[in-house]
Amino acid sequence: MVCHSAVCSAQATCSHSTSAHSQRRTCSRARTVAWRSSPHTLVHQKPLTRKRPNSSSRQTTRIEAVSSDLDQLREKWEIPGLVTFAPGRGDLPCVKLQHSCGSTAEVYLYGANVVSWKQPTPGGEEVLYVRPDAVFDKSKPISGGIPHCFPVFGPAPAPMAQHGFARQSDWTVSNTSADQQPDERDPEVELVLTDNEYTRSMWPHAFKAVYAVTLHGELLRTDLRIINTGDKPFEFTAALHTYIEVLDINKATVKGLKDLEYLDKVKDPKNPQKQKEDRELIKFTGPTDSVYMKARDYVELDVGTGAAVSISSSGWEDVVVWSPWEAMKECYQKFACVENAKFNSPAVVQPGESWRAQQEFAVIDL
After folding, report:
1. How many CB atoms lie within 10 A of CB 343?
2. DSSP calls for 116-168
3. Which residues contact 95 (CB under 8 A, 6 or more apart)?
4. pLDDT (tens digit per residue) in 119-128
5. Is 205 considered catalytic here?
6. Residue 41 pLDDT grade (very low, low, confident, very high; cuts 50, 70, 90)
7. 259, burial (CB in 10 Å: exposed 0-12, middle 13-18, buried 19+)
8. Could you say which of 190, 241, 245, 317 is catalytic?
9. Which of 78, 106, 300, 339 is catalytic?
10. In the predicted model, is pLDDT for residue 45 greater than 70?
């Protein structure tokens, strides 16, 4: 592995496309994932802080602060042409991964959210979806992409917000790298969230969350580790709330969940009905909020264009299928959520130990 060490000043531009899927191609149809056996190298870094304006030149000061933050990130972590930093929407710091094959991914430090993953096709075909009501001012989590749900998936006890605090916290860059391959290099960014006064006010545990995002050719990989850095065990639930763009929700189907038991949370989320899935292809015909328990490590979402997004996983035990339907009239037809989760049985982590889960996303022709 080649880790970043050189100082550079390459510029990057973060874009956000929500165009519908057209024809997709992928060089890899592999459904098994060869996960790295060695852990990532952790490099501790204090979170960057922004200057607070105290004069009428508020906008100018804010831009200068963002620029200063990005300059520091570029100096320490940028790998020219592979891992770059730029202001995203709302001037939030954004990491752009660029693979030599042409695929790209964009990760915001706020929420460690992968907001974009594009295929190496003319124009760059967007796979993920960001809702039109998404805001990028830190007033709430980013609605779209791949938001984190941690340390709670679902309703949380006050004062914690639903789905926990990870998706509305600033994560810190701890490492960037590019694996040396015979013909290509895999760009990767590793982000860290550690307990602080804010998290402990809601969840009184010492922890470190380590999240790596990698482009392996046209594939997108995520690797999440939750480490107990305290002296007492803790438990949590978690999910990666993946929004995937579809041509039309009425044409989308999910495959790979037949014969599994699931919790139907549409009518009563607090007391969901347990059912058994008998459909080979799950169609969306109304509001959907189903948690498939002890799911297999492979699932497909047919996006309605003759292509599907496949998700291979390790460590995640459940799969969630969600559509808000007409509760979000302006956009529900354009996306579906298929999410890896750890929900039915909470993860328990002893002091000094960790929990780990991984994903690999691919676009495949049907």
Report:
1. 23
2. EEEESSTT-EE-B-B-TT---SSSS--SBSB-EE-S-SSS--TTSPTT-SGGG
3. 83, 84, 85, 106, 107, 108, 109, 173, 176, 189
4. 998 889 999 9
5. no
6. very low
7. exposed
8. 241
9. 339
10. no
Asked about 277 being catalytic, the answer comes back as no
Whether the CA torsion 106, 108, 112, 115 is positive or negative: it is negative
List beta partners, residue 149: 239
Of the candidates 357, 329, 327, the one whose C-alpha atom is nearest the C-alpha of residue 153 is 357
**How confident is the prediction for the chain on average, in pLDDT?**
86
pLDDT digits (tens, 9 = 90+) for 233-269: 999 999 999 999 999 999 999 999 999 999 999 999 8
DSSP per residue, 26-66: -S---------SSPPPP---PPP------SS-HHHHHHHHH
Sheet holding 307-314, edge to edge: 2-3, 172-180, 185-194, 207-216, 219-228, 354-365, 307-314, 298-302, 253-255, 281-283
Coil, strand, or helix at residue 77? helix
Cα–Cα distance between 76 and 8 in angstroms, integer? Answer: 9
Name the residue type at position 84. T
For residues 292 and 10, the model is more confident at 292
Q: Which two tokens stand for residue 269?
A: 């989320």
pLDDT of 220 > 80? The answer is yes
239 touches 226 (CB < 8 A)? no
pLDDT band at 182 (very low <50, low <70, confident <90, very high): low
- Alpha carbon distance 332, 303 (integer Å): 13
- How far apart CA 155 and CA 152 sit, in angstroms, is 7
Q: What pLDDT score does 335 carry? A: 98
